Amino acid sequence: QMADPFLYDTGARSRYGCLGHEVQIEHIKAYVCRPSFFTDKAVIVVHDVFGWLFPDIRYIVDLIAGHGYITICPDFFKGTDPWKTTDHWADFADWLKHHDPTKVDKEADVVLKYLKEQCGAKKIGIVGFSWGGMAVHHLMLKNPQLTAGVSLYGIIRDSEERYNLLNPTFFIFGEKDHTISCDQIVLLEEKLKQYCKVAYKIKVYPGQVHGFAQLQPEDMKPDDKPYIEEARKDMIDWIKMFI
């Protein structure tokens, strides 16, 4: 049985008044926020197990849009139920079978097409959190249309081909994340050094648990705030370097 990886009380999050709007793209709903000026740069945000409606992920979308990117969070669960705070962790493995973060290629293609054809995007990056971090790791191995990626506490564990990244990828981890062991991070680093032919970066943030980087300011614990803000800045800086 998997331990509950979310050490923050996910039920007690602040509400969030979104700055963007929802759109329908083929079979997918998505939340989009655009900057106030024209840009041909875009970022896809991949939600965690709590789905595209979760306030924290919409806050992140708006935050990235504020840095000058057309930012979009599609519903990668395609209308099916996200994991809920009331669900039992004993059922998580079964839920995950029907929500595989490495089976996101079709949806990613639909969103890439929309960004290019409807929004005029020329350079597109991707960031993802937890479940979304695994999806980003997968997509950075498979989809050359994604110019750069940031995977936050998501790691593909059981595949030998997970190191041949196509474009620059940044892996962000929390030191106290008990869903991802230090050994796994060390292995990732060793293997990337050996196989990876593009720019990559791995950074571990002291004292941080799984899910730390998504929190809205009013939900942050004072001791964690500097690390959360640093991780956000690092994420944006990585995107800005390549997109």
From TrEMBL:
Q: Where in the cell is it found?
A: Cytoplasm, Cytosol
Residues covered by the Dienelactone hydrolase domain: 28-241
Q: Name one Pfam family in it.
A: DLH
Which InterPro entries does the record cross-reference, listed alphabetically? AB_hydrolase_fold (IPR029058), CMBL (IPR042946), Dienelactn_hydro (IPR002925)
From which domain of life does this come?
Eukaryota
**GO cellular-component term (any):** cytosol
Gene Ontology MF terms in the entry: hydrolase activity
The text of the family note is: Belongs to the dienelactone hydrolase family.
Q: What's the protein called, per UniProt?
A: Carboxymethylenebutenolidase homolog
Which species is this UniProt entry from?
Steatornis caripensis (Oilbird)
